[in-house]
Amino acid sequence: MAELVVPPRVGVAERLAFEAGFTKSCLPEVGRLLRLTAASKPRGVIAESGTGSGVGTAWLHSGLGAGARLVTVERDEVLARRAAEVFADDDRVSVLAGDWLLLERHAPFDVFFCDGGGKRDDPERVVELLAPGGILVLDDFTPSPHWPPRFEGEVDELRLFYLTHPALDASELLTTSTTSVVVAARRL
Ligand SMILES: C[S@@+](CC[C@H](N)C(=O)[O-])C[C@H]1O[C@@H](n2cnc3c(N)ncnc32)[C@H](O)[C@@H]1O
């Protein structure tokens, strides 16, 4: 069977994560979804909160159109600086150091991978920052057979918020047998 190919820049960012002891990079299964969403908006503004070492950024970058822009923000300045070096040769990419709200000046977003800042602390703002038709990706959920979804026995209010938000068409997708993502599009 053919092996799944990981884009070279993802490999660079994964090595950086290893060297930095950073363990929160997205899974390749999420990465492929990120690439797909970026590729679906070839002239779009693609945003990420929580760069980490740049693994998710590199997956988004692998689907980035010639007329698109990618902006990502990381509050850990050392990580942000190292991740910025991974994309230093591409002026479509901006790696910001600071709080996720720095992203606001680049909104509205055609794709938003909300992975550090915003997702839990200001979910309504996350939705507001999407362009009409903009796609939101949220990972790190645990699949639940229940409705409403539960996590560790309790209703997962955050997941429910995104899945039922009136401005979103949202769905939960399995990425592995033990992990899921919420993907949503902002209504026009
Ligand atoms: C799950 S990791 C990001 C992984 C990365 N998106 C990837 O896919 O490889 C979350 C990151 O968000 C950063 N973070 C958390 N809160 C933040 C905030 N308010 N503003 C900016 N970055 C934040 C953390 O420092 C951490 O590096």
From TrEMBL:
Please provide the record's keywords in A-Z order. Answer: Methyltransferase, Transferase
According to its UniProt entry, the protein's GO biological process terms are: methylation
Whether Transferase counts among this entry's keywords is yes
EC number annotated for this UniProt entry = 2.1.1.-
Q: What class of enzyme is it?
A: transferase
Q: Which domain of life is it from?
A: Bacteria
Q: Extract one GO molecular function annotation from the record.
A: methyltransferase activity
Q: Which PANTHER family match?
A: PUTATIVE (AFU_ORTHOLOGUE AFUA_6G01830)-RELATED
Protein name per its UniProtKB record:
O-methyltransferase
